[in-house]
Each structure stands twice: as C-alpha cells, then as structure tokens.
Amino acid sequence: LELIGNPVSSGGTRPISLTVHGDLLYVLNAAGSGGIAGFRIGTGGAPTPIPGSIIQPLGGAGPAQIQFSPDGRILVVTEKATNTISTYTVGSDGVASGPNTQASAGNTPFGFNFNQRGDLVVSEAQGGPPNLSTNTASGTISSLAIGPGATLTLLEAAAGTGIAPLDAAFTPGGRFLYVRNGGGTVGAFRAEAKGGLTHIGDFGSLPADANGMAAR
C-alpha cells in the first residue's frame, strides 16, 4: 500500500464506508448529521469533491455501508438504527439524488453486496447466536454460494485472519478479496473456483480507527 497525496475532507464527520465506480467515489459519514458525499478520482488517484453531491442528514439512522450498484447508476446505504435501506440515483454529472427508503427484510441491516445477476444480498447483525453469527467478533470470514432466486448456502465459515475483520471488497472480476482488519492491516485472499477463500497474507499499517474499503 502507498499513500497518494494528502488526506481530504470527507464532506462530513466520521466517514465509515466508501464505494468506487470508475472515477466516482462516494463516502458515507455517520456522526453529526451524517450523510453522503461524492468525489472524482483524478489520474494520480487523489479525490476531488463534486459540488452539490452532499446529501444530509443520516445521523439518526445509524448508517453502516454505502455501495454502487454494478452499473454505477444507484447508490445503496444500509441503516442499522431504523432497519431500512436507502437508495440514491446517480446522474451523469456524478451528483446523487434521493433517498428512496424502504424497510429491510430483518433487523440491523449491515454489510451487503450485489451478485452477478444484480441481486442485493444483505447481512443482518441482529438475531443470531453469540460468536456463531458475527464474523467480526469471532475473527472469521464466511463465504456463501448464491443460487437461483438468490438462495444462500454456506460454503466456508472460518476463513479468517483472526483479527476482527471489519470491511471487505472484491477486485473487479472477483479473483481477490481484500479485508480491513481491526488490527490496522489489510488481509488478502484468493477466491477459489468453488467459492472458498485462501489467505495470502496481511499487509500494510493503517490507523487503528480507519474505516471503509474499496478495491479497483
């Protein structure tokens, strides 16, 4: 890992999640009034704020994650405190509009991702047995197969680095998975043909309070 340029304002307080599509980057801020903010990534990799892209507030909703849809036209935000999922449409100028808010399927919607068919698969942080349903607390990473109708089957339940995984992102094409560890490192995994994960190693030295991850 190599730091590019100087840090820039996230457009709010306590940025906890970010997402990238092409040269667009959006950040989710959780403290204060909360909200989302957009940036353009320059040729050197440094982000520049997009005028008019900040949407507030989200503070009372307990936002957890932000991510682009596969085509980059929609932003999705999970909101833990209100058990809702909000979507925003993204214009050609990179400015998002919304939100369109709907109830989640269960309690405490947290991390999520899209599969290749465009289905949104959301993990919920409430309702499971202690140390058996929370990967961060048990230091593990679970991989699941997505079948017809977005049905889920557990493939592997203990592929982890043992250091509180807090966020994860696949590279385009899904060959490698990178995980932000609570110990200030980034774990690298290779995705195998049948869906399992092979730990390659842990790298870098991040601030202990770093949040969010995206892979390009």
Structural summary, described in words:
The chain has 216 residues and is mainly β. It contains one helix and 16 strands. The radius of gyration is 17 Å and the shape is globular. It starts with 12 loop residues before the first strand and ends in a 13-residue tail after the last strand.
Question: Short summary of the structure?
Answer:
The chain has 216 residues and is mainly β. It is 2% helix and 46% strand.
From the structure above, extract its key features:
216 residues; 4-stranded antiparallel beta sheet; 16 strands; 2% helix; globular
Element layout with pairings:
Elements: E1 13-21, E2 24-31, E3 35-41, E4 47-49, E5 63-68, E6 74-79, E7 84-90, E8 96-103, E9 109-114, E10 120-124, H1 135-138, E11 143-146, E12 152-156, E13 165-170, E14 176-181, E15 186-191, E16 197-203
Antiparallel strand pairs: 1-2, 2-3, 3-4, 5-6, 6-7, 7-8, 9-10, 11-12, 13-14, 14-15, 15-16
